[in-house]
Amino acid sequence: MLIDKFFKAGRKFLGCKYPIMCGAMTWVSDPKLVSTIGNAGGFGLLAGGNAPVDIVEEHIIETKELTDKPFGVNLITLAPVYQDQLELVCKLDCPLVVFAGGIPKKSEIEKAKRYGARVICFAPTAPLAHNLIERGADAVILEGSEAGGHIGPVALSVLIQQILFNVDTVPIFIAGGIATGRMMAHLLMMGAAGIQMGTRFIMAEECVAHPKFKEAFRRARAKDAMPTPQFDSRLPVIPVRALKNEGSIEFAKLQLELLSKMDNNLIDRHQAQYKVEEFWVGALRQAVIEGDITSGSLMAGQSVGLVDKIQPLNEIISEVVNDAESELQRLKGFSTGLCEFEGCRLQLFNIRSSRAVRGLLDFKLHTLAFGKRFEAIAFYGGIMDKNVFTVFLDYKAPTPFVVEPLDCSLRHSSELLKYFFKDSFDFPYSPYKKAGS
Predict the structure, then answer these.
(1) Which of 37, 91, 110, 239 is the most buried (most CB within 10 A)?
(2) Span 365-391, mean pLDDT?
(3) Residue 382, SS3?
(4) Dihedral angle over CA of 9, 13, 14, 20, nearest 10
């Protein structure tokens, strides 16, 4: 399959067949779901959250009994039991640890790695991504504000341009608003090592979420998943994206109540923040486990507008992978007849502009060619000028190589082009040489 070329980096890092991660969701990501994800070829994450250490330990042991495939544990750095959870995952030799919810200390990242774990950190902003890489993160998950649950302030489209396009020192996984294979295909082509989905996996048959919870997702539209507001900077709260209901209104009331208590010195900021997280844990349980979709928290990403049916988890994985493969094949077919390889010779047909060349290079040289070295470029028809050649220099194509302008219009003389590119190109004598002659 064509997509195997794009899975290479993610497979190597995660150790699974498909670099498709299931986000860690409190009350949702239990051993059954995580093991089923692994057995289907993906990569599951247990949710540490605010769970007592003994519960996290039970979940890790149970997951190992249910699958021999790799999985990870997600730790919330702001949780009261965070340090104890970190000690536990180190003691149990967990192969992968994800730090979320805050900024882990460099010493904490080093500790996890010292016990043999690979470390992934969430990065909702560009500065934080660079910071976490400097602290030793082995990989980064870029999560856009389209995601469900606790979210950052920046849209995925911007994070991709800031980080994915500029950082190649560690694998970059993408999260936030992803629910389809077609989207995954384009993210992989842009350089992502893999993706993470949460909302899509809520709709898996194997997911423990209450039927009413899933039905609320099925009926929801993308615009229904709204982030919660922050009323006062004295009580900094991380926005939570969820389907709006009475629970959202109760959270607003809680913030006002806590601010009043802070004004009267009844609680400090740290205690108030803990009360906020305590609220979300309880409200989420109400909805996910008890099926109270009126007062409970319906944490959901904007991709909720893309999910409309409950499916077996294995079917979800297969559908995403197959749709991604179909999209790659569609794009490959779109460029058929415009660009192809013959041995070490790159052949371009009827090129009209440098933009056309750049578009073909984006797909062909960085995907289908995938490291293939070419020694000659043949132009059949179209126009060849200095702008076209500039594209090849931008892409650091192997040099020197022969340019063969066959049956094409040359806007500049070969002498001028050779001067412009100095020793980068070796031109054949006749710019009007016929194909096959």
Answers:
(1) 37
(2) 52
(3) strand
(4) -30
- Asked whether the beta carbons of 19 and 193 are under 8 A apart, the reply is yes
372-401 burial by CB neighbour count: b if 16+ within 10 A, else e?
eebebbbbbebbbeeebbebbeeeebeeeb
Considering only CA atoms, which of 300, 339, 370 is closest in space to residue 6?
A: 370
d(CA 76, CA 79): 5
pLDDT in tens, 93-111: 999 999 998 899 999 999 9
Strand partners, 99: 75, 121
Is the pTM value of this prediction over 0.85?
A: no
Kindly report the average pLDDT of the chain as a whole number.
Answer: 83
pLDDT in tens, 327-362: 988 877 554 444 555 555 555 555 555 555 555 555
What is the three-class DSSP state of 383? strand
- Give the pLDDT mean for 248-261: 91
Sequence-distant (6+) residues with CB within 8 A of 377 are 345, 346, 347, 348, 392, 401, 402, 403, 404
Phi-psi sector, 10: left (phi>0), alpha (psi -120 to 50), beta: alpha
